[in-house]
Design goal:
Layout lengths: L1 E4 L8 H4 L7 H8 L5 E4 L9 E2 L8 E7 L4 E6 L5 E5 L5 E6 L5 E5 L4 E5 L8 E4 L3 E8 L6 E7 L3 E7 L7 E3 L9 E4 L5 E6 L5 E6 L7 E2 L2 E2 L9 E3 L4 E3 L6 E8 L2 E9 L10 E2 L12 E8 L2 E8 L8 E3 L6 E8 L2
Parallel strand pairs: 19-23
Antiparallel strand pairs: 1-2, 3-6, 4-5, 4-28, 5-6, 7-8, 8-9, 9-10, 11-12, 12-13, 13-14, 15-16, 16-17, 17-18, 20-21, 21-22, 22-23, 24-25, 25-26, 26-27
Length: about 325
């Protein structure tokens, strides 16, 4: 299978490349900038059958970790981290997100679909078609259930899409002044924010206000030198993985502007292509805040837990079944 990728100049560490050297279209685009496209050979899907422990559906919370090296998604009990299942059949799975009902949306990083699973389910309940390749992460509007993510290549070039109620056909948005939208995140009120590679790859932020069809640019102070990356609402501010590195930055929004007001260092982590903050949808089922990040620590593939926003040393590391973890999301059923 051959995919069309953006230019990928520059060296990459083993921790960035992972055990197999396999990366998604969006990751190679990020590491190489917006250079000329070329073909890249992809590994085949895991042909083993998906499985799920009988008690998985009864678990209140499950942690889904996309493993692009194995072309599957591992499912763990939460917070214990015991392996409960493996979902297969993907093309380099990457970003993962979930909605209030516990449905899980898994991006096919080197495909053009999003696969949707019920909490604890072993087969997709629907497939969403994209106009190109998915970017680094997805987000669900807690007020409507709309699903949003950035897309590159295909018929949209560089755009973001919104699926109404997480199904059907997406509406496509293509803001001007950008060459890619790697991260998107809804706030608690249903406003959508997506960061972008702006002029000379400078960090750029866009907003699609709730109920509007017009995308507007949001100036952000304090983001000089950043490159856009994964994004998630943390309940108060936008948390952004600037340059997809091991530091998360908090952007406080005020009216039509934003400013960087803090940072969280995930000590020991390598590249972080997507992260998940546990109670971003306003859930009170988990005490305190935690950020879960698939990454490498001392060249070991892990899904690590860190206190948020304090950061520091990981409080737990899951390693079972992982080869090149990329994205993660917590699914909590009602």
């Amino acid at each position: 299978m051959v995919a069309l990728l953006a230019g990928c100049g520059g060296g990459m560490s083993p921790a960035q490349l992972g055990a197999t050297g396999q990366n998604t279209v969006a990751q190679l685009r990020h590491m190489g900038g917006a250079g000329a496209a070329h073909a890249f050979e992809l590994a085949g899907a895991n042909v083993a059958r998906s499985w799920m422990a009988p008690d998985a559906k009864r678990s209140r919370s499950l942690l889904y970790v996309a493993d692009q090296g194995a072309n599957d998604v591992e499912v763990y009990s939460y917070p214990a981290g015991k392996l409960k299942g493996t979902l297969t059949g993907f093309q380099t799975p990457s970003g993962v997100c979930s909605n209030k009902a516990g449905d899980v949306f898994i991006l096919n990083g080197n495909g053009t679909t999003v696969e949707v699973y019920k909490h604890g389910g072993s087969s997709p309940i629907r497939t969403l078609n994209l106009p190109g390749y998915p970017e680094l992460n997805c987000s669900v509007d807690p007020t409507t259930g709309n699903l949003a993510l950035g897309v590159l290549g295909g018929t949209c070039g560089d755009c973001f899409v919104v699926f109404p109620a997480g199904s059907g056909t997406a509406t496509v948005y293509t803001p001007s002044g950008q060459t890619g939208l790697p991260g998107c995140g809804y706030d608690n009120k249903g406003n959508l924010f997506c960061d972008a590679y702006g002029h000379s790859d400078a960090f750029t932020l866009f907003e699609l206000p709730k109920g509007s069809s017009t995308v507007k640019a949001i100036p952000v102070s304090g983001a000089s030198g950043w490159v856009a990356g994964p994004m998630q609402w943390d309940g108060t501010d936008l948390a952004v993985g600037g340059s997809a590195g091991p530091t998360l930055y908090q952007i406080q929004l005020s009216g039509s502007t934003g400013s960087v007001v803090g940072s969280t260092s995930l000590s020991g982590a390598a590249a972080v292509w997507q992260f998940w903050i546990t109670n971003n949808l306003g859930s009170k089922r988990h005490k305190g805040l935690r950020v879960i990040a698939p990454t490498f620590i001392n060249s070991v593939p892990v899904a690590g837990y860190w206190n948020y926003p304090a950061g520091g040393t990981a409080t737990k590391m899951i390693t079972t079944g992982l080869t090149q973890p990329d994205g993660a999301a917590l699914s909590t059923k009602k």
